[in-house]
Structure prediction request, 193 residues.
Amino acid sequence: MKRHISILLSFLFLFFFSISFALTEKDFEHSMNFYQKLVEKKVRVEELIFTLEKIFKKYNDIEINLAPVREKLLTLRKFKVSRDFYIKLEARGASIDERIAALKRILIKFRNIDADLSGMEKKLERLQEARAGEEEGLKKFEGFEVEKETAAPTIEPEEEKIEEFEEGEISGSEIEEEVEKVEDLKEFKEFEP
Prediction:
């Protein structure tokens, strides 16, 4: 009889374990559906990363294949690092060409990611439009030529006459004025050697 009880308890344990595993799989599916709804709502990357981390921790000890969750999580983290780098690049005043190149790399690398890339795509379009506007302005400037009739008259320098002074020809008042100018400059520290 004891043998039958132990066998019966073993079957009950396996039965309840399989039921609890089925519930866990359904919970996992429910969690992934919730994540997918967040993706459809186009929430911020940080929220997607947070949700995937919670799902990974919750189902890590159960025998569920979490490889897709891990891959999505790693890809989102890499995207966040790239996005943060672009923000720093923009803040330090990088040129339009540098920012366009960085955005193109990010958009190509992460084109199939769950995160919303529409904001970065709009930035790229605006930067490309700005660069096209600059190029048109430069073309107009390069094509601009001044006709001789409308140009300002050029002044040709006259030959300077160098007068040689003999000793004693410079008046004392002129020397005093020059000394005063030099003494006035002593007040400014930026002129000191």
